[in-house]
């Protein structure tokens, strides 16, 4: 693979466990029987992507979601359903990040949104009772704050420029092949984390 001095990690499905089916089920249980048409990769509704790159705020997103699913429920019910997919931070992964920081520059790049990140912060603090997720990285990039998202080549190039990274010696780890391909297009070394695999199973010393 060649010498690696920097690693950029994805968040969902790589560091925090996710189950997208739980959010779909939560909305179906609320009465949105066709929610699968709008949720997941290849969104049918453009406002999902708008929310992910910060073009609309929480209020606009919730209102758009209520309009889409045609269900009048309290905001907190919508938020709970939206965040249902967020599960847990395995301690072994956080321990690994601490070990890798001794050898590599570490960054985080996640396609996400403000409601998810608020919940992610709560899950992290409830699990570890100390510090924040961002503490494990030189810098964390979140699509709704960056105003760009994966797999767009421009997003990767921005991170490379801002941190003076050498693309060929930077590894990008993601569980979505389309994002790995985007990283490769920007000159990074993409690493696809296959379903069922864990970053703690990677032979990091062989990189």
How many E-type strands?
Answer: 5
Strand order of the largest sheet: 3-2-1-4-5
According to CATH, the fold-level topology of the largest domain is: Rossmann fold
Main sheet, how many strands, which sense, barrel? 5 strands, parallel
Mean pLDDT, nearest integer? 93
Question: What would you say this structure looks like, in words?
Answer:
With 207 residues, the protein is of the alpha/beta class. The chain folds into two domains: 6-17 and 88-206, HAD superfamily/HAD-like (Rossmann fold, 3-Layer(aba) Sandwich), CATH 3.40.50.1000; 20-82, DNA polymerase, domain 1 (Orthogonal Bundle), CATH 1.10.150. It has helices at 20-30, 46-52, 58-69, 75-82, 91-100, 114-128, 143-146, 153-162, 177-185, and strands spanning 6-9, 105-110, 139-142, 170-174, 189-192. It has a five-stranded parallel β-sheet with strand order 3-2-1-4-5. β4, α9 (177-185) and β5 (189-192) form a beta-alpha-beta unit. α1 packs antiparallel against α4 (75-82). The protein is globular. The mean pLDDT is 93.
Descriptive tags:
single chain, alpha/beta, 42% helix, Rossmann fold, globular, 207 residues, DNA polymerase, domain 1
């Amino acid at each position: 693979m060649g010498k690696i001095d920097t690693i950029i990690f994805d968040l969902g499905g790589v560091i925090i466990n996710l189950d997208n089916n739980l959010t779909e089920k939560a909305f179906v249980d609320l009465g949105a029987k066709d929610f699968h048409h709008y949720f997941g990769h290849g969104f049918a509704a453009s406002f999902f992507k708008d929310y992910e790159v910060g073009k609309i705020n929480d209020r606009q997103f919730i209102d758009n979601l209520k309009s889409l699913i045609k269900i009048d429920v309290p905001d907190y019910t919508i938020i709970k359903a939206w965040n249902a997919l967020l599960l847990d931070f395995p301690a072994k992964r956080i321990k690994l990040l601490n070990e890798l920081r001794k050898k590599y520059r570490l960054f985080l790049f996640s396609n996400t949104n403000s409601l998810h990140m608020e919940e992610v912060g709560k899950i992290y603090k409830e699990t570890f009772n100390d510090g924040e997720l961002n503490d494990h990285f030189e810098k964390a990039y979140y699509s709704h704050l960056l105003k760009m998202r994966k797999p767009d080549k421009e997003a990767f190039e921005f991170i490379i420029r801002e941190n003076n990274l050498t693309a060929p010696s930077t590894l990008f780890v993601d569980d979505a092949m389309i994002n790995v391909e985007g990283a490769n297009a920007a000159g990074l070394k993409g690493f696809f984390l296959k379903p069922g695999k864990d970053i703690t199973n990677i032979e990091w010393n062989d990189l």
